[in-house]
Amino acid sequence: MQPDLKLRNATLLQFSTTLSLSGDLVSKIQDSSHPDKDGDSVFLDSYKGHRALAVVRGINKDSRDFEAKFVYQTVSGGRLSRSLPRIEQLINVLSLVKEELNFECNVSFTFGKSLHPRPIISLPMNYIEVPNKPFDKIQGLHLVKLDNGETKYDVFLEAPTQGALVETIAFKYRSKIDRSLADKMLQEGNTISDKFVSKEYKRAPKAE
Question: Does an H or E element contain 184, and which?
Answer without folding.
Answer: helix 181-196
